[in-house]
Amino acid sequence: MTTNDLLQQERTNLIKVKAQELGFDFCGVSRAEFLEEEAPRLEDWLNRNCHGKMGYMANHFDKRLDPRKLMDGAKSIVSVLLNYYPGERLPEGSDDFKLSKYAYGTDYHFVLKDKLKDLLAFIQTEIGEVAGRAFVDSAPVMDKVWAARSGLGWVGKHSNLLNRDMGSFFFIGELILDLDLAPDGPIADYCGTCTRCVDACPTDAITEPYVVDGSKCISYFTIELKEAIPDEVKGKFENWIFGCDICQDVCPWNRFSRPHTTPEFDLSPELKAFTNSDWKEITEEVFKEVFRRSPVKRTKLEGLRRNVGFVRGE
């Protein structure tokens, strides 16, 4: 191992230790390079209109595949995972309205971005003049692919990243840096012959293992779609009014999920007290108060009312 290799490994270890101190559950590194294998897959996915009305998915095709087009001089990508699996859950009986677990607390964009900025500041203080950008699901970055390349897990048949120690209930963020670091290699795929996620999806959004037609996903209908939800999926939502966790809930690897340690992701007292009547009769004032810093804010009040009405068969 050369002196340069040793320096890269030392810096990489330093960053990983700090990431853990900041509360991240896992941290890995990959080289910033063109995603050659992903290019034809992404093109095919877009050509089949699997992104539905999510027009932004078709934008910045080149940047999505090459981080060096997002930041000049990019050399490494530091990927991090932050667990959000709740210790306390909303009721999920057959009559209860259901909310994806990622939306129980504060919007993850705020929480992850702050932690990533702290990590970047640490790198710049400890290592020197390092240019970097933090990304949390808000730019054309293929976060699951980079996390997989960093050895943090593998992309499962439901297209979510799976980690052997923690399952899939976590957020992904990354720093793109103009700093050479020691990259981690990818790990094997441990889905095996299991097809529980494929079989359980009520709208058949997982059209084949590892391929999700986003335009058929309950999360797409309840969050991304801004117009009326199509009648052909009526009766298939199993009371999910914001997002959907079915493919993750049935995954055997999520038996390893454990409660998160991030207070911001805790179930808010107001949400905990919500009844079905509260969801049906929600007002603008209540919506603004309860979901002020929540991911649910994204669907807006009219979108939430539409979703509640849809699962009620209205």
User: How would you sum up the global shape?
Assistant: globular
In the predicted model, the low-confidence regions spanning at least 5 consecutive residues are: none
Q: Which H/E pattern describes the elements?
A: HEHHEEHEHEEEHEEHEHHHHH
Distance between the termini: 67 Å
* Residues in helix, %: 25-40%
CA-based gyration radius: 20 Å
In total, the number of strands is 10
The structural domain count equals: 1
Largest sheet: 4 strands, antiparallel
Tally of DSSP helical segments: 12
Strand arrangement, major sheet = 1-2-7-4
Q: Can you give the mean pLDDT?
A: 93
Structural class: alpha+beta
Portion in strands: 5-15%
Task: Provide a brief overview of the structure.
GO terms for molecular function: 4 iron, 4 sulfur cluster binding; cobalamin binding; epoxyqueuosine reductase activity; metal ion binding. This protein has 314 residues and is an alpha+beta fold.
Account of the protein in words:
- The chain is an alpha+beta fold.
- The chain contains twelve helices and ten strands.
- The strands form four sheets. Strands 1-2-7-4 form a four-stranded antiparallel sheet, with helices on both faces. Strands 3-10 form a two-stranded parallel ribbon.
- The longest helix has 19 residues, at 3-21.
